[in-house]
Specification:
Helix content is 42%, strand content 25%. By secondary structure, the protein is α/β, with parallel strands linked by helices. Helix 2 packs across helix 3 and helix 5 packs parallel to helix 7. This is RNase H type-1 domain-containing protein.
Length: 236
């Protein structure tokens, strides 16, 4: 963060944007190791950075309303319903380190960020457990700020696979999932027998989404195996 703050005063706006996208692409490539996703090589990474930044700058210059296409409708799932909030959660894991980084941002349906957190957590965790911890931390922030989050986006399909497992989870992962359910029930202020939390995510080639069915707070046992997930190629 101090590096970016220093660059803000010494480089031009376009140069700073390029640096930020490069940092972002390197972070994404590193996370691919932990999620068993194919990484981009150096040439592919550089080409992606240039193309992404050019596309972003082009959209910033367009003043006319965009034409609604099937692709636009296909990606509407990434936005929460009008007037609702969406939670994005992330984790950064470094092999051999006894520390992970947890991050989360809560957005309105127009993309405006209303809250964000970033914090380290000491300990050695798997990438999957780290993703669950980040989601729980985001929901804790929503609880503290009294923000009713109905949609959550995470980075890895293995998080959904863990929740959707036919075998009940044990240990830390199970405890974190129970916390996630309880937090969601609290922040939605619902007393109904069943409420839903939609979780969306994206790999390099696949788009997937899932929905956790959280049972009412009066039930002593909360089962987590009722999550449904569907997969489809981007652009279908």
């Amino acid at each position: 963060m101090n590096v970016l703050r220093g660059l803000f005063y010494v480089v031009k706006r376009d140069e700073l944007a390029l640096i930020c996208v490069i940092f972002w692409s390197l972070w994404w490539n590193r996370n691919c190791d932990f999620h068993n996703i194919k990484k981009r090589d150096a040439s592919e990474l550089l080409l992606w950075v240039v193309d992404f930044l050019a596309e972003f700058q082009h959209t910033q210059q367009v003043l006319i309303p965009p034409i609604i296409s099937s692709a636009t409708l296909h990606l509407s799932v990434w936005s929460p319903p009008p007037g609702k909030l969406k939670l994005n959660s992330y984790v950064a894991v470094r092999k051999g380190s006894q520390m992970i980084g947890l991050g989360a941002a809560i957005r309105k349906d127009n993309g405006l960020i209303v809250a964000a957190i970033s914090k380290p957590m000491r300990g050695s965790f798997s990438a999957e457990l780290g993703e669950l911890l980040a989601l729980r931390e985001g929901l804790c922030s929503a609880k503290r700020l009294n923000l009713a989050v109905l949609v959550s986006e995470v980075d890895a399909t293995n998080v959904v696979s863990a929740v959707n497992s036919d075998v009940s989870l044990f240990g830390d992962a199970f405890n974190v999932l129970v916390d996630i359910q309880a937090l969601f029930i609290y922040i939605t202020k619902t007393k109904s027998e069943q409420v839903n939390l939609s979780i969306y995510g994206q790999d390099i080639n696949d788009r997937w989404c899932a929905e956790i069915h959280v049972r009412g707070v009066k039930e002593k046992t909360r089962q987590i195996r009722s999550l449904k997930c569907r997969n489809s190629k981007l652009g279908d």
